[in-house]
Structure formats: structure tokens, C-alpha cells
């Protein structure tokens, strides 16, 4: 498959959804409501199950293709794009760690057939925002499990068709001994404890709940959550999240360019002063795009090595991508505000950046960049080669031995 085919396989369907998402984005933001119209369009165009392989009813979309879909949706409505990204992150974990478990394979087939929307519940009261610890525990009895979780945030929990929930493996397990449980809507109830009235990403509807569940024991994924997080969730999250934020930056850049083109026509041969900021914005945008593409490339390399677990160097690289992209995007939005001026500050202007700025600031908070830097401090000491110094082409087989994560 050529790069053009990879980029364009879902382009028409994605653009159709993006047009609808854009049409309702202002209302979704103003009302703080779920982007129902965008997800109705996603189901119509069958975008929710495209990551699932053809043998299970999907289309085998790659992470690269999912990232481009997230970018396009991010230019239209960041809330819609982020929900889509979070859904695909959960689906990636399911696909990677079902291990021929019959219940989970049937569930994946149903996701594809019915275009189910998956949410996650990883945050919990009392653990300080650390998704690698749980207070709640799975209680098993005669093939059935019970679970109760106090979750300060479950994004689009009320709208999801299923929720993937982290928990301690058993009541006597440590806080770090976690599993991931797949709960269908019929398996759980949600008691709302907090409403999502946020600065940005208002359409994600990230309300707080007490989740109470009863299900079959086989709905617990076979792998430990530590393995799922390290091998799948971390990297896919950072690739798709950063693609959403990059989409926000792309839309801001488009508005800056259009505004300055109009200004240039009005003043004749005089170059508007904001053009210098546009040059800076384009440099930041180019470097941000390259960073995301590189981690997608490295992820493909790591997945092609089934004999190796994800290296500490690659984990650090993935974390760095999240930090750098999130901070670059905010720089791009700040420069864009200055380039356009008061028209960008006005909600009534066609060049308004108000919603984009507010949505972009979520990037440094989910997960906190300070928390990620602390995690990277220990990873940096473990990695033999934290970065690759070789400049290599992106096509062809990997033959070098000094790629990120290789150990001597």
C-alpha cells in the first residue's frame, strides 16, 4: 500500500463526518453537551470499528490512519475528535490483549457490527490521578464478578455502549496489581456525583460517577493492566491525543493565514505585521507534525519485534512526544492570537480562536505534563540510548541497530 493510499483510504468518510462535527461544534461547546450529531455520522460512515481486522468485521485501520482521522476531526470539533480518540485507544487495548478469549472476540465482533462506542474508567478517588493504582477491587464468586468504583471522571460515560474499567485484581491484591474489565451497558449502573462544566473540551461530558457493576468473570481481560498500559494504551493514547491537538493547531493556522491574506489585500503591497508570526507558527507546526510521524514510525518498529517488550527508551520517547506536542500546540495558539489580534479574541468573529484556545489547554493537563516528566526521570536512567542519532529514511526495512530502544 502506498503512502497516498494509506492517507486517503478513509478520507471521504472522515471529511463527511468532520463537516457535520464542525456544523455543531459551537453548540456542543456552548451547551457542554455530547456531540451526538457527529457520532451519528460516525456510525453511519462506520468509522467506530475500522481498527478491527477484517476477520472480525472491521477494516484493519492502522494507527497512522487513525491518527490522521483524529487530526481531521480535531480541525472541526476537538471534543468529537477526543472522544473518537479515546474510543480507539480502548479498542486497541482489546485487540492487543484478548488472546483468543472467546467472550472478548465476540464482543469485538459486536463493536464492529453495531458500531459500539467504548469509554474508559481509569481515574479513581483517592489515588491522586495515578491510573496505575486502584482502590476498588474485583470480587469473584462462582464465575460472576462484582465491582464498585468511585470515578471522578468517566468521559461520555452516559453515552457509551460499554466501559473498560481498571480495578485491583482481587480484594487482597495490591493497589498496583490491576486488571481491565470490559463492561457492557447491561452490566453496570452509573450514579452521577459531579458535572463537567469545564474551560474547554466541554463536549466530552466528563462527569463523575459511582460505577456499580456485576458481570461474568470472563469479561476480565487475560493480561494485567500494567502490561496493557505499557504495551498498548500509553503509546496509542499519546499518538491519538497529540493528533487531535495537532488538528486544533492546523485549524488555528488556517484561520491565521486566511485572516492575513485578507489583511494583505486591504493594505495593498504592505506586508501585515502578523505575517512574521505566521512564519513562526508554520515552523512550529512542521516540527510538531514530524514528531508525531516519528513516534508512529517507531511504534510500528517496536510492534514488529514480538520477542521484545516495549523498551524504557521507547516509553520515554512516547512520553516526550506528548509533552512536546502539547506545549507546541499552546505556543501555536498563542502566536495565532497575536497574529490575528482582537478578531481572534471575539466569539462573534469568523476568525475567532476562543474555542480552539480553550480546547488546546487541555493538552498539558491530560495526563499532567509534570507527572510525565517525573516518570521520565527514572526512564532516562534506564535507557542505554535515549535517542537515535542516525538520520534514516522512512521507507524500507529497519536494518540499523541503534534505533530508539535498542540495547547493546
Q: Can you walk me through this structure?
A:
The chain is globular. The longest helix has 43 residues. The strands form two sheets. A four-stranded antiparallel beta sheet has the order 2-3-7-6, with no helix packed on it. A three-stranded mixed beta sheet has the order 1-4-5, covered by helices on one side. The N terminus and C terminus are likely disordered. It has twelve helices and seven strands. Helix content is 51%, strand content 12%. By secondary structure, it is of the alpha+beta class.
Secondary structure blueprint with pairings:
Layout: H1 3-8, H2 11-31, H3 36-44, H4 63-76, H5 78-97, H6 102-114, E1 118-121, E2 139-141, E3 144-155, E4 162-168, E5 178-184, E6 188-194, E7 206-216, H7 225-267, H8 274-303, H9 312-340, H10 342-345, H11 354-360, H12 369-382
Parallel strand pairs: 1-4
Antiparallel strand pairs: 2-3, 3-7, 4-5, 6-7
Give the beta-strand count: 7
Total helix count? 12
Mean pLDDT: 90
Radius of gyration: 22 Å
